[in-house]
Amino acid sequence: MIRLRLKDPRVGMLTVTWVEVAADYAHAKIFVSSLLGEQSLSQSLEGLREAAGFLRRELGKGLKLRTVPQLHFAADESIERGVRMGALIDGAIAADAELIKSSAGEEIPSTAETFDIRAIPGVRS
Question: Where in the sequence is the domain holding 49, given as residue range(s)?
Fold first, then answer.
């Protein structure tokens, strides 16, 4: 609905990453992210917040609910947080490998060769 019906030019390329709906359906918090950067995301959020009434009305036309939730939009920062955590982990692994290499004087295989992500429970490749 955001992509097809909303005509606000501020709302750019967004991904809806998560929706939390209250138990009584009175409120829905919609988390969005953008690959175009922080400025694009803030402009998109501004446009979405102004269009919340329109989106709620359109949603009500398609839902068979007694109460149509009020829509609240928020930035989802989990993707950026995940990228930062991945970079920190990669940096720590590289630092450990350098430390071991310098103390032992031998070549250490890369993490891609020694670590199989499929070994983590719940992770599918």
Answer: 2-76
Q: Looking at the domain assignment, is residue 68 inside a domain?
A: yes
Q: How many domains, in total, are found in the chain?
A: 1
User: What pLDDT digit, counting tens, does each position of 27-53 carry?
Assistant: 999 999 988 888 889 999 999 999 999
Q: Which residue matches tokens 């929706």? A: 19
Q: Give the whole-angstrom CA distance, residue 121 versus residue 119.
A: 6
Domain harbouring 38, CATH code? 3.30.300.20
Closest CA to 80 of 35, 115, 44: 35
SS3 34: coil
- pLDDT for the residue numbered 34: 87
Give mean pLDDT, residues 86-103.
87
